[in-house]
Design brief:
Layout: H1 2-17, H2 26-43, E1 49-54, E2 57-62, E3 73-78, H3 89-98, E4 103-107, H4 120-137, E5 143-149, H5 151-168, H6 171-175, H7 187-193, E6 201-208, H8 228-236, H9 242-248, H10 260-263, H11 273-278, E7 282-288, H12 297-301, E8 323-328, H13 349-360, E9 366-370, H14 381-384, H15 390-393, H16 397-405
Parallel strand pairs: 3-4, 3-5, 5-6, 6-7, 7-9
Antiparallel strand pairs: 1-2, 2-4, 8-9
Length: about 400
């Protein structure tokens, strides 16, 4: 907008210099400036990014150069380990270009750099407060979606459980004063909020190269080449990444409880992880089939190793050349399940992985497999799938376009 005003001022000055506007006619100058701004506005794309700062949070909306409108769909983007809100800059702009009047894109800022070492739960709690703050600033939003890259996908899963539980107990209503005289929540309001995330209709939950099954063993971190010695050493040194490292390598057993990621594959008394995940209209897992040295294909696509598609069966999409496979998971019936007992500290990692797969597949997922074979950016596949930095990760733009094109409004 600043550049728009500068152009208008410049053109007005030129007109005045050519004698079209009287130097003493202030009213004429103002009227001319308004007309010029209108002409310029018509040539400015409606999707021009507008950044606004409010108490430390950042939203991105389409530039409102024409008629006023109120987007009703809030899209929350969450960065991964040692990441920042800027990692989602390219993707956020693509969403605004496609849906300028429908969405508000919020790139989370509360978990960046070393703060991403604090653990999935701590990061999730920060995200909860941030989301509630954004919703208060945009009271007209009605729907909500989450998009998380890498660790950010796990943080988003944790946050949605917190927001789901908060809604179901009427805490949001109490904060807004919507309670009965005795201080209890209004039953009608509780029913209205049932199945909602932060009081909004949950639409899309999208994870991008997210280690849903953790990073412990079973070739879940490709850089270790499947060598047991390296995987075991990494597990013992997971503390280098703080509590987040312990959560990822399933070495956290606080108060004798199972690892957090295993807990997140079910509903606990205080946090309904799977109920919150199930409330979304669609769940999508984008996964790198090759070249991702940090997050393995099976953990990001929620598959067992023997279920991974064969590379020779890959079919490249004409519009999205790096997307090689798409499928929708089948929900297992109770008869197909073999119950596994959770025993906290004494629970072996291979059993935990199987338990997480079975639990997470109780809801349907859209799997989208990505392969950057032939790209000069294969070495950075983990970042390229997100287009973390357009200069070095631009080959992932078709993946982002696929995400935008299939987004449920």
């Amino acid at each position: 907008m600043a550049s728009l005003e500068l152009l208008a001022s410049s053109e007005t000055a030129d007109d005045a210099g050519r004698g079209r506007i009287s130097s003493n006619g202030r009213d004429e100058i103002k009227e001319s400036t308004k007309k010029i701004k209108k002409r310029r506005a018509k040539s400015v794309p409606k999707f021009g990014c507008l950044r606004r700062e409010h108490d430390g949070v950042q939203e991105m909306e389409a530039d409102r150069t024409e008629e006023p409108f109120s987007p009703t769909h809030l899209v929350i983007m969450v960065n991964g380990l040692i990441g920042s809100a800027q990692n989602w800059k390219f993707a956020a702009k693509q969403f605004l270009k496609r849906y300028p009047k429908d969405v508000i894109v919020h790139c989370s800022k509360v978990n960046s750099a070393r703060l991403t070492f604090d653990g999935v739960d701590v990061m999730g709690n920060r995200l909860v407060e941030e989301v509630l703050l954004v919703i208060k600033q945009y009271p007209y939003v009605q729907k909500i979606s989450f998009i998380g890259h890498s660790l950010g996908g796990l943080v988003a899963r944790y946050a949605t459980a917190r927001l789901y539980e908060r809604d179901s107990t009427g805490e949001l209503a109490q904060e807004n004063g919507d309670t009965n005289n005795d201080g209890s929540s209004n039953p009608c309001l509780q029913e209205k909020l049932k199945g909602k995330i932060a009081g909004l209709e949950p639409m899309n939950f999208i994870s991008v190269a997210t280690p849903h099954l953790g990073s412990r063993g079973h070739k879940q971190v490709p850089i270790f080449c499947g060598l047991y010695t390296l995987e075991k050493a990494a597990s013992h040194t997971s503390w280098l990444f703080g509590r987040s490292g312990k959560h990822l390598f399933l070495t956290d057993c606080d108060n004798g409880k199972p690892p957090l990621l295993l807990q997140m594959a079910g509903d606990c008394e205080d946090l309904k992880f799977m109920s919150a995940l199930q409330s979304f209209r669609r769940r999508v897992a984008y996964a790198n089939a090759r070249f991702d040295h940090l997050v393995g294909w099976s953990t990001s696509s929620i598959r067992r190793r023997n279920e991974l598609p064969k590379h020779q069966h890959f079919m490249r999409h004409e519009k999205y050349p790096h997307i090689v496979n798409e499928e929708v998971t089948k929900i297992l019936s109770p008869q197909q399940e073999v119950p596994l007992e959770v025993k906290g500290n004494g629970y072996k990692w291979i059993d935990m992985e199987e338990e997480m797969i079975r639990s997470l597949l109780k809801v349907s997922w859209e799997r989208v497999d990505v392969n950057f074979k032939g790209s000069k950016q294969t070495l950075f596949a983990h970042s390229t799938i997100q287009v973390k930095n357009y200069c070095i990760n631009s080959d992932g733009k078709d993946v982002i376009q696929h995400m935008v094109d299939n987004f449920l409004l």
